[in-house]
Amino acid sequence: MSYFASIGRISYEGSRSNNPLAFQHYQAEQVIAGKKMEEHLRFSMAYWHTLTGGGSDPFGTATAIRPWDGYSGMDLAKARVEAAFELMEKLGLRYFCFHDRDIAPEGETLQETNRNLDVIVDLMEQHMKSTGIKLLWNTACLFTHPRFVHGAGTTSNADVYAYSAAQLKKSLEIGKRLGADNYVFWGGREGYESLLNTDMKLELDNLAFLYRMAIDYSREIGFDAQFLIEPKPKEPTKHQYDFDAATTIAFLQRYGLEAHFKLNLEANHATLAGHTFEHELRVARLHGMLGSLDANQGDLLLGWDTDEFPTDLYATTLTMYEVLKNGGLGKGGINFDAKVRRASFEPEDLFYAHIAGMDAYAKGLKVAARLIEDRVFDEAVDRRYASFREGIGRDIAEGRATLASLEQYALENRPISNISGRQERLKAVLNQYLLEADK
């Protein structure tokens, strides 16, 4: 059965095309900075938003019209698998991501739930073999069910902690079986509402222990995926322990886990933390912890996680600038953790949204590669910090200076002359690169 029969395979037609079901910038085979575009941009479909999301929000029920709406239970789960692979093949998406509870319904017991998962994983495995589409990452949904009201790895209930560990074990086994390149830990409810009833040290210790057990079990079963942690500052809890890149890196270093993890960073989470996406990427990159991306954007006028498809060319350009400077994402990719707007409820909107996001990142990649090739920002940074490459500045940068030597230098009362940062000029140059026709 075809779920999107009226839509064919999406192809590249160039920037002058008016076809809404064609790429203007994403050309999989085009070589940019020494690699094919599809190698730089390992695009992935998010199962939860694309297949299970219905368009509900805190003030309204679902609006989405989907070709699989007539099914229920395991029949619905099977239909979604078929629709997912049809959509990915037509869009040219080579990867996908999912939470365990996205793909199969929970049963009355954990045993029944695991049997449901096995049926769907069998079906997924067949489609992956026939299409060549791969699993970028999977994860365990340890936040939706009421049992996780106090968290999972940071819960105050030992029975819930044990259940979480069992669910995680099964999820790692699924990742191993499907050959996932990565495995994500997302602490949807790993935080607190009030310090008045929270043992923060115990919660953090328990979370670190859960991660250690996951490392040990993955070694035991031969699952060699890159482990990723996805930071988020708030929502639903007031304060989540993986607040941002810096906080998450500090946590990993505190518990000696930094060698086993990298970060899966999301644009909308960055803005919720009061950062830009490029800030989070830069922090992770400088620590050697940049692993993968969740591509979306938020509405800065709304204080919650809106998960819009990424269309801001400034953001995608600066994102790909950091990725290229990082030498790529390794096993990671660019997962569209994004959903169509509630008013975009027709099946075709899923295609329009992914095309818009893929084109935005393709354009960002091309511009970022040219900025790096022309050393636009590198030269600006070199000029700004030139004083640290000679004389007293070089002594400081190379660690030879002392307070006494710096005092002696300052007492000579040399005239201090700062130079302009030329911030506005650099933004104008960025505009120029963005607005120029593709070369």
Spell out the blueprint of helices and strands:
Blueprint: E1 11-12, E2 22-23, E3 31-32, E4 35-36, H1 37-40, E5 43-46, H2 47-52, H3 73-91, E6 95-99, H4 100-103, H5 110-131, E7 134-139, H6 158-178, E8 182-185, E9 191-192, H7 200-221, E10 226-229, E11 239-240, H8 245-254, E12 261-266, H9 267-272, H10 277-286, E13 290-294, H11 313-325, E14 334-336, H12 348-373, H13 376-384, H14 391-397, H15 403-410, H16 423-435
Parallel strand pairs: 1-2, 5-6, 5-14, 6-7, 7-8, 8-10, 10-12, 12-13, 13-14
Antiparallel strand pairs: 3-4, 9-11
Description:
The chain is 46% helix and 11% strand. With 439 residues, it is α/β, with parallel strands linked by helices. The strands form 4 sheets. Strands 5-6-7-8-10-12-13-14 form an 8-stranded parallel barrel, surrounded by 4 helices. The chain has a two-stranded parallel sheet with strand order 1-2. β3 (31-32) and β4 (35-36) form a beta hairpin. α3 runs parallel beside α5, α6 (158-178) runs parallel beside α7 and α10 (277-286) runs parallel beside α11. The relative contact order is 0.11. The mean pLDDT is 97.
